[in-house]
Amino acid sequence: MRARPPIWLASPSRFAGLPRARARMILAGVALLVLASLQSLLLGEAPAASGGAGASDLALYEGIVAGMRAGGGYYDVAADQLRALDYPLRPFLTFRVPTLAVVQAALPPLAVLALMLALSVAAGLAWLAALMARAFTRPAPLVAAAVLLAGGLVAFVQWPLWPFHEFWAAPLIALSLAIRRPGLWLSAAAIGLAATLIRETAALYLLVMAACAWIEGDRREAIGWGTAIGLFAIVLGFHAWAASQAVGPLDAQSPGWAGLNGPGLFVRAVWQSSALQLLPLGVAAPIVALAAFGWSAWADPAAKRVAMTIAAYAIVMSLFARLDTFYWALMATPLILVGLTFLPDALRDLIVATMDTRRVRVQRITR
């Protein structure tokens, strides 16, 4: 089937000219995705991420940084704060990697806030430049993308949240995705590694990028991302050993990560951490599903990697996250809403393909 001119995109979407049967299968998958997003309405209210007696994660991280500014060592200060606020100390992953706390303790508060703002702005500008160069040629879709990008990044410029590790790692992942190009991946891998040294769950992003490079046949890039994973594993090993030195046999154990709360938890978390919180959850949930799907429509290598990163975090959250670990979704939040700008072309091309009723006629001529 002949592809129609794009609506918003600079070039036809990935779904342009698909066979009718395949287009119908994809539309059915989109419908299932939207239905799955409504499971978020069935979940109980997510408790605030906290320790005992109502202590919050914000108080925990602020206390750790304050203790380090007073001259304490990271692991001793962190262990004391975890105990004081009735948090578990085992396994070692209950201790965050010390990178962010060390930096924040070494800098004046104003510099920390400026750095947080600069990181989110850099990620946003890098993506706007990429979309302007490769996705859109007209002002309307670019303005829409800028608004949606701001809607996804709005949580990451809230200065009172500076102690949270996800609010630093997520913009780093977004920036890494923006600057990666075929054959130009070293800086992206370095930034991705930096994200893992702030928040360990960013390692899932490194795995996705390594898998994408391997599937695309770029063995050198795959090895590069694999090297970043290896370096992270070495750091994590030292971190595990150092944390174990500060933990005693009577310290509490974490309840584990086997929530099995389904995709609704991811959808609700994106709703809570983006501009979508201005809408009722029943309206926002299908928007999250359609935005995630929209990334699959842009026929660009970066779009495929964004889509796979979003899918990876959604799947992991569905299987393992507890209601109080909703913040895992922050890793996918900065970019997810931008997928809505690819949706008009995607849905138009899929609907047109499903309505294709042309028949091939074979005529035999006998002489």
TrEMBL record:
Transmembrane stretches, start-end: 110-130, 142-162, 182-215, 222-242, 275-295, 302-320, 326-343
Keyword annotations of the record: Membrane, Transmembrane, Transmembrane helix
Entry keyword Membrane: yes
Superkingdom of origin: Bacteria
Keyword Cell wall biogenesis/degradation included in the entry's annotation: no
Record's protein name: DUF2029 domain-containing protein
Biological classification of the source: Bacteria, Pseudomonadati, Pseudomonadota, Alphaproteobacteria, Sphingomonadales
